[in-house]
Design brief:
The chain is of the alpha/beta class. It has 2 domains: 2-163 and 267-358, Rossmann fold (3-Layer(aba) Sandwich), CATH 3.40.50.1820; 168-263, Orthogonal Bundle (Rna Polymerase Sigma Factor, Chain: A), CATH 1.10.1740. It has 13 helices and 11 strands. A 9-stranded mixed sheet has the order 1-2-4-3-7-8-9-10-11, sandwiched between helices. Strands 5-6 form a two-stranded antiparallel ribbon. α4 packs antiparallel against α5 (193-207), α4 runs antiparallel to α8 and α5 crosses α7. The model is unreliable at 347-354 (pLDDT under 50). It is an enzyme of class 2 (transferase). Homodimer.
């Protein structure tokens, strides 16, 4: 069930800027039991929404592992996104007009501090399982560090403790695509949209890899097969164009721009001494999952997490899907979660295991 939570008090961001409240769009499924011990909090990635059955249908929903008949499932749309939470297209109370290019930066730390107010309003005292991939995993880790006793179990997937120079470079190139759109500086909802289409094609190169394209986008399109060679069109070309157009139908350049900045600012060690010291604060039982072919969040980053989170386990899924494997390999992820949660607490908090799953 999709709902809106409104916080009406002053809220100070990591940047030092203070805003006069915010709203969060969120979805719940299932019911909170009497013991309040069946909460699953799901964190979505860059362009997703607060309904995990829409983008993680193999893992969340009826007859899946995270079934609403068993769990009270919560997922919040990130601040800055365009699916109902505070965003650049909302009205700036100070001006009475949309924020547009003046929208303040919400870091992942700001995001989870906003979620804490929603948590309180829902009567949630502890979260049984926190799970999220990519930028969703970044938020999960941030919250597990910020409130060490909040989660009993966390499952960060294809994510990291600090966004890498490689990841920042990809995001910077994508924002440059938007910045070079002549409409970007206009105060219009559609500003920068053509640049965002190009940005999305750049992002795809990091979400997939050489082998993903080789397996799924090799050759020329069927419609151009009988045409002269100079008129033939590659499937990889039409695929890139299609993906840019597809995102433009459901997203906007402002959300894309500011959320990518938030990802770049992700740094668990900021103000906490070091990344290693921050990870040591996590008390939750932890299963870290990586994807063998992920070039954006390579397995080394998950290995770093498992090395420094006390008692963490790690599983690396052998998949050709690249970073997008965290969305597509839900059968294997389900098996890994079942195995992890079935282990006695005294064993799982002292054991670290690496599992390679060959498909």
């Amino acid at each position: 069930m999709s709902q809106i939570f409104t916080y009406r008090q002053a809220f100070t961001l990591e940047s030092g800027k203070t805003i006069n409240g915010f709203q969060l769009a969120y979805t719940t499924a299932g019911l909170l039991n009497e013991r309040k011990d069946n909460v699953v909090w799901i964190f979505h990635a860059l362009t997703a929404n607060s309904d995990p059955t829409d983008w993680w249908h193999g893992l969340v929903g009826s007859n899946t592992f995270f079934d609403p008949k068993d769990y009270f499932i919560v997922c919040v749309n990130m601040p800055g996104s365009c699916y109902g939470s505070i965003s650049a297209l909302d009205t700036n109370p100070a001006t009475g007009t949309p924020w547009y290019q003046d929208f303040p930066l919400f870091t992942t730390r700001d995001m989870v501090r906003a979620y804490a107010h929603l948590k309180k309003s829902l009567g949630i005292e502890q979260i049984a399982i926190g799970i999220g991939g990519s930028m969703g995993g970044q938020q999960l880790l941030e919250w597990a560090v910020e409130e060490p006793l909040l989660f009993r179990n966390i499952i960060p997937i294809a994510t990291n403790a600090q966004h890498s120079p490689w990841g920042i470079a990809f995001n910077t190139s994508q924002r440059m695509c938007i910045e070079n759109d002549p409409t970007w500086q206009l105060k219009l909802p559609e500003a920068g949209i053509e640049g965002m289409k190009v940005a999305r094609t750049v992002a795809l190169l990091s979400y997939r890899n050489y082998y993903t394209y080789h397996h799924s986008q090799a050759g020329i399109t069927e419609t151009s097969a009988d045409k002269p060679v100079d008129e033939q069109v590659f499937r990889a070309s039409t695929y890139q164009q299609y993906q840019g157009e597809k995102l433009a139908k459901r997203f906007n350049a402002f959300s894309y721009y500011y959320l990518s900045q938030a990802m770049d600012k992700h740094h668990l060690g900021r103000g906490r001494g070091s990344v290693e010291a921050a990870l040591q604060r996590i008390k939750a039982r932890t299963l870290v999952i990586g994807i063998s072919s992920d070039i954006l969040f390579p397995p080394e980053e998950q290995q770093f997490l498992a090395q420094h989170i006390p008692g963490a386990q790690i599983s690396i899924i052998d998949s050709h899907y690249g970073h997008d494997g965290f969305l597509l390999e839900y059968d294997i992820i389900t098996r890994l979660i079942k195995n992890f949660l079935s282990q006695p607490v005294k064993n799982s908090i002292t054991q670290q295991t690496t599992i390679i799953n060959n498909l």
